[in-house]
Amino acid sequence: MGRLLFRGRVVAKDAAVILVDTSLIVAWMDPAHRHHQECWAAIRHWAGRDSLAISSITYAELAAGARTREAVDEALHGFTRIDCHSN
Q1: Over the stretch 62-72, which tens digit does the pLDDT of each residue have?
Q2: Which of 25, 1, 26 is nearest to 11 (CA)?
Q3: What is the pLDDT of residue 42?
Q4: Which end of the chain has fewer CB atoms surrounding its CB within 10 Å, N or C?
């Protein structure tokens, strides 16, 4: 089963995926952050080579940072969201 993207597309089961950490996303989203340029360059570089993903935990952390669900969805529209499950 593929992973659902924010825009409703599906990624192949064995596709290469880079899981992006919350700290990188925060710096990428905030132009005033001291590491914004480096994070922006890294995301731009790797987005052209592999699928970028965030975990449901990263999504929740961003939403808890006073952002609306719509704002988080819009900012992350190109990222795959991987849900974390425990058995």
Answers
A1: 888 767 888 88
A2: 1
A3: 92
A4: C
* Polymer length in residues for the chain: 87
Strand 80-82 and strand 51-55: the pairing is parallel
Contact call for residues 15 and 51 (beta carbons, < 8 A): yes
Planar angle of CA 1, 84, 30, nearest 5 degrees: 110
Is there a contact between 46 and 17 (Cβ–Cβ < 8 Å)?
A: no
pLDDT of residue 34: 96
Max CA pair span of the chain: 40
Rounded distance between C-alpha atoms, residue 38 and residue 33, angstroms: 10
Contact 82, 53 (CB under 8 A): yes
